[in-house]
């Protein structure tokens, strides 16, 4: 009797694997993922670390625009001394004043493209991004219309630790 049981079992074929539901899922899922991948973009901004003067001394003065982010407020320096300093307002950095001073510097030095953002430790990352956006450019309202015009200030930004 044991032999018959084994013989009968050998004669049976294994059932086929039904993958139609899996294929239906893939037919719907793959186009959805391809379409949604178009809308996700990664923005990468190239930054550099400030370098010290290691070459021969130049005769012309080199203007260095430095925005120093401190816990108490912001400072704008020229590389040697602090030109302007303004404290936080309502526990927020004064971005409008920073942009106004940077626009005056850009008007005085129109060919200048680089600036340095120096930060003290323990400053929130969100504040760094807001200040970097303010250094890179400003939005100005055009006279006689409600349109905002983008003004490029200093697009080449270096970051580092505040002294």
Segments where pLDDT lies below 50 for 5+ residues? none
Task: Characterize the largest beta sheet: strand count, sense, and whether it forms a barrel.
Answer: 5 strands, mixed
Query: What general form does the structure show?
Result: elongated
Identify the strand order in the major beta sheet. Answer: 3-2-1-4-7
Percent range of helical residues? 25-40%
Instruction: Please count the beta strands (DSSP E, at least 2 residues each).
Output: 7
C-alpha-based Rg, rounded: 31 Å
Strand content: 15-25%
* SS-based class: alpha/beta
Instruction: Tell me the series of helices and strands, N- to C-terminal.
Output: HHEEEHEHEEE
Averaging pLDDT over every residue, what do you get? 80
Task: Tell me the number of helical segments per DSSP (H or I, 4 or more residues long).
Answer: 4
What distance lies between the first and last C-alpha atoms, to the nearest angstrom? 93 Å
Please characterize this protein's 3D structure.
By secondary structure, this protein is of the alpha/beta class. The protein has a domain at 66-161. It contains four helices and seven strands; from the N terminus they run ααβββαβαβββ. The chain has helices at residues 2-11, 20-39, 95-108, 125-136, and strands spanning 66-69, 73-77, 82-87, 114-119, 137-141, 148-152, 156-161. A five-stranded mixed sheet has the order 3-2-1-4-7, covered by helices on one side. The chain has a two-stranded antiparallel sheet with strand order 5-6. α3 (95-108) packs parallel to α4. The longest helix has 20 residues, at 20-39. The radius of gyration is 31 Å and the shape is elongated.
């Amino acid at each position: 009797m044991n032999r018959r049981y084994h013989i009968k079992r050998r004669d049976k074929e294994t059932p086929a694997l039904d993958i139609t539901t899996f294929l239906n899922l893939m037919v719907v899922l793959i186009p959805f993922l391809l379409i949604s991948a178009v809308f996700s973009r990664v923005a990468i901004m190239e930054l550099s670390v400030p370098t010290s003067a290691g070459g021969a001394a130049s005769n012309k003065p080199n203007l260095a625009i430095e925005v120093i982010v401190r816990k108490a407020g912001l400072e704008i320096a020229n590389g040697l001394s602090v030109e302007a300093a303004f404290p936080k307002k309502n526990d927020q950095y004064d971005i409008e004043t920073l942009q106004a001073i940077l626009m005056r510097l850009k008007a005085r030095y129109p060919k200048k493209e680089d600036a340095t953002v120096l930060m003290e430790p323990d400053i929130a990352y969100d504040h760094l991004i807001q200040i970097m956006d303010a250094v890179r450019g400003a939005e100005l309202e055009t006279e006689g219309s409600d349109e905002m015009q983008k003004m490029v200030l200093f697009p080449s930004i270096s970051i580092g630790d505040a002294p």
